[in-house]
């Protein structure tokens, strides 16, 4: 028989993430006197080495920090190169065949699309600057000390975990990269004789160790203005990329105020656009006006699915770089707008479109310390090794976040120069009456907002502890009436959803349902920790 997993209860502090060695790195930082931000940064840097299919030095980062009194948000995502235009993308699609990929689930203009691999979807990596900026504002230990474990794992190697090896193999099995110079270094660094490393097989990346040393020693200045920046500029110029040293020099993170929706007397916090956290808040606003406890199980699940569809419809229509387009955030979150959207839900599966409000591939981790500081942090290169462009001699892949742009010139998220694209990675945080409850997140592309909705509902509607909430079977919606569910979902629920018009498929592959973590503050002090059962990671505490 299967025994239920119990949450970890920790009196002083905790770390939860998707790789046990990274979680152990963060815990060691806490135990030697570091705070929750120090632990989060050490964990995040280690994850770039330990889980490279999901995140890397060349990726982006978002974070929410509870400093003991209030929340702070950091948008450490990068912008597109100054030379990226719609015309450049269309011309490239005419010169060579580009598989149409749409990260947002919508139609692309003129049959073309942002390519998933190569230089065109590359945006400026924001993670190194994000590490520095979080440390400058909140860190307590020396910045360079937080890189020790990551550098060691890269320099001396480590046995690859079973879950990472499986993800690595899936990524390489789907690789269709042409034999261009821009992909040659990827094959050298991230394959073993052309294949993925096997579970338990040792893997080293000494070039990444040296890159991390320079980031640690210079406070990330080397990455944006030094040797690494110059090497990126030269490699792009030599192999057809648009990224330049000027693009790197101009990069900067943005401190933002998180957005909230009230749900069951709690405040659920997400970061504002360009991230898709708004989709989760919109869905929760719809659901907060429904007494789910009074409904039968099929109706409860049906309402959640339909609310998520409404949230995504609006997010995909309106989320863009707020520095370059007006995003009607306040109008979308208005209770009256939520009521109007709620009225669209019937007892049948729908295919909602965006409303018209009045205008005015990822890793996740969370940490908490004995002083009450808590961090919700997520970073990613997107779609399994990102662009698969690897800087020779530096050991890291560049992200392909430009895939989130639209080619429709009338869309607020239209591709263009020096813009932040629609971003999938979103950290979450719960508070109640101004007091922190704790950080949470579910990574996995399009799964993330609906994972947030399912996790929050499991915590606040079903009253589950964080481990039980993460263990619960999940569902995944992408488009139309199609609904993918995990095998553990009750058969009667599946039949009931099908009777309401949902086209339900029971999945054989668990990866699409995302990986989550959560740390919740206990009323009497200390923390309850839950960690994703679908991956290798764990929640550690002391």
TrEMBL record:
For whether the record's keyword set contains Hydrolase, the answer is: yes
User: Known Pfam families for this protein?
Assistant: G_glu_transpept (PF01019)
Which SUPFAM superfamilies does the protein's record reference? Answer: N-terminal nucleophile aminohydrolases (Ntn hydrolases)
Q: Which UniProt keywords apply?
A: Hydrolase
State one molecular function term (GO): hydrolase activity
Ranges annotated as spanning the membrane: none
* UniProt name for this protein: Gamma-glutamyltranspeptidase / glutathione hydrolase
Could you tell me which species this protein originates from? Micromonospora mirobrigensis
């Amino acid at each position: 028989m299967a025994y239920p997993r119990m949450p970890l209860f920790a009196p002083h502090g905790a770390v939860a993430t998707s790789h046990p060695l990274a979680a152990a790195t963060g815990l060691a930082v806490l135990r030697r006197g570091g705070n929750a931000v120090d632990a989060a940064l050490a964990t995040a840097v280690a994850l770039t080495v330990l889980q490279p299919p999901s995140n890397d030095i060349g990726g982006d980062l978002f974070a929410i920090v509870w400093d003991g009194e209030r929340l702070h948000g950091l948008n450490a995502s990068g912008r597109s190169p100054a030379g990226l235009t719609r015309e450049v993308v269309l011309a490239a699609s005419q010169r060579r065949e580009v598989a149409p990929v749409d990260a947002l689930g919508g139609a692309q203009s003129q049959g073309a699309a942002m390519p998933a691999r190569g230089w065109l979807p590359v945006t400026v990596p924001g993670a190194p600057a994000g590490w520095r900026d979080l440390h400058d504002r909140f860190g307590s230990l020396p910045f360079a000390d937080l890189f020790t474990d990551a550098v060691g794992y890269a320099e001396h190697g480590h046995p690859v975990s079973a879950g990472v090896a499986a993800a690595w193999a899936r990524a390489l099995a789907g690789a269709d990269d042409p034999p261009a110079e821009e992909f040659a270094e990827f094959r050298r660094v991230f394959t073993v004789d052309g294949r993925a490393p096997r579970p338990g097989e040792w893997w080293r990346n000494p070039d990444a160790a040296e890159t991390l040393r320079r980031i640690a020693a210079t406070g990330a200045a080397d990455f944006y203005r030094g040797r690494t920046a110059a090497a990126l500029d030269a490699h792009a110029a030599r192999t057809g990329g648009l990224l330049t040293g000027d693009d790197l020099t101009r990069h900067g993170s943005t401190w933002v105020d998180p957005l909230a929706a009230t749900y069951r007397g709690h405040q659920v916090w997400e970061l504002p656009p360009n991230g898709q956290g708004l989709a989760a808040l919109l869905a929760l606003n719809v659901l907060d006006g429904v007494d789910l406890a009074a409904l039968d199980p099929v109706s409860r699940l049906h309402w959640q699915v339909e609310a998520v569809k409404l949230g995504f419809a609006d997010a995909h229509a309106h989320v863009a770089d707020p520095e370059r387009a007006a995003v009607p955030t306040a109008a979308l979150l208005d209770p009256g707008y939520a009521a109007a959207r709620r009225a669209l839900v019937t007892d049948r599966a729908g295919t909602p479109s965006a409303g018209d409000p009045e205008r005015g591939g990822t890793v996740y981790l969370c940490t908490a310390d004995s002083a009450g500081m808590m961090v919700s942090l997520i970073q990613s290169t997107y779609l399994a090794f990102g662009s698969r462009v690897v800087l020779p001699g530096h050991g890291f892949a560049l992200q392909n976040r430009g895939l989130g742009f639209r080619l429709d010139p009338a869309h607020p998220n239209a591709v263009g120069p020096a813009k932040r694209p629609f971003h999938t990675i979103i950290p979450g945080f719960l508070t109640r009456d101004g007091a922190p409850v704790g950080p949470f997140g579910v990574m996995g592309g399009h799964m993330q907002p609906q994972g947030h909705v399912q996790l929050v509902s499991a915590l606040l509607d079903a009253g589950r502890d964080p481990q039980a909430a993460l263990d619960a079977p999940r569902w995944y919606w992408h488009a139309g009436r199609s609904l993918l569910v995990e095998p553990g979902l009750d058969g009667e629920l599946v039949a009931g959803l099908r009777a309401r018009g949902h086209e339900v498929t029971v999945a054989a592959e668990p990866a699409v349902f995302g990986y989550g973590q959560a740390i919740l503050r206990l009323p009497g002090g200390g923390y309850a920790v839950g960690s994703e059962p679908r991956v290798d990671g764990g929640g550690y505490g002391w």
